[in-house]
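Quick one: structure tokens for this chain, please?
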Amino acid sequence: MFRKIGPGILVAAAFVGPGTITVCTLAGVHFGYSLLWAVLVSIVATIVLQEMAGRIGVLTQKGLMDVVKQEIGSPLVRKVVIALVLLAILVGNAAYEAGNIGGATLGLEGIMGQGFISKFYPAFIGLAAFLLLWFSGYKTLEKVFVGLVGLMGLCFLLAAIMTGPSLLEIGKNMFVPSLPQGSLLTIVALVGTTVVPYNLFLHASLVKEKWNSKDDLKTAKWDTIISIALGGLVSMAILITAASASLTDVTGIMDLATGLEPLFGKSAVYFIAAGLLAAGVTSAMTAPLAAAFVASSCLGWKNGMKDIRFKLVWMAILFVGVLFLSFDIQPIKVIQFAQVANGMVLPIMAILLLWIVNRVSVMGEYRNKLFQNFLGFAIVLFSIFLGIRSILKVIGVF
């Protein structure tokens, strides 16, 4: 089973980044176990959408935007959609890359300590990501990500077990939804950090690197389910750790590690720091990779990951992330714009995805079934709400 795991693990690595870790930590600290159901819902939504994207990639052997361009008849609409997606993904990923490298830097500081050399941690992490992306083919990257996600999962699961959580409370709150006072935005954040638009592009592009036949659809489906479920398990473990530790003054993941130290010794800090480092590095690699796949698909580049233009795109995204961190530039304004762009592109991409996956000309007998469409439309409605919330929050209305 684990030999067959492939592109799905990169998707899991992409959404379990420093942002997800921080949101899950704060959810656990402020609301205990009560928002575990929101993590479960977000994982189900991610599996549904990513399975559709993966199915499109395997059957068409094209990137998602290649298929969208092919199916949109109006040249004007096609250009507007391409421009919107390209702008949103490139700018959004460049902004969030700083957060990914920043998270990895915090993890490295937790393991190696702070000092003069810690100023160079972002550059070290950026260089490591560059070397892996430049010299590795898809198969090598896959193995690297399996190892890093495995490390991340092990660290956070061990941290959760160490806190001695209540299994009865976990089960109850996972399957019985509740809305504690003041929790709405946290619920939206939990879903928003998991159902990520650029992962749809990433998944559709990566599956064709591994599979090329409709006979592989079942394997691709289980790869998606298993990998994303494992990522969801990591998210839940972080929330459970934060909830079980009975902490109150926590603003981020390393505060959680420091808070656990008196209870469980220095090992707790190392577990969480190593997990955060792995999460930051994997997300720091997948965000540039996804941006490059989107650019390649939108602009019609044909040579895949070996194309020099493809490499230039991911290098630019990686460079921007390191630049923000190395010179203490606070990318708040850029991230705010990225939130608006993300809020706009998520419902649009969910609708486009549903449209494509229901077209007989593209999917034939493998188009969506009724239940898949029901789930898909429910996710679209929520993504529209999420998009409106993101935009209104940034302009200060909500």
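The two ends are 45 Å apart (CA to CA).
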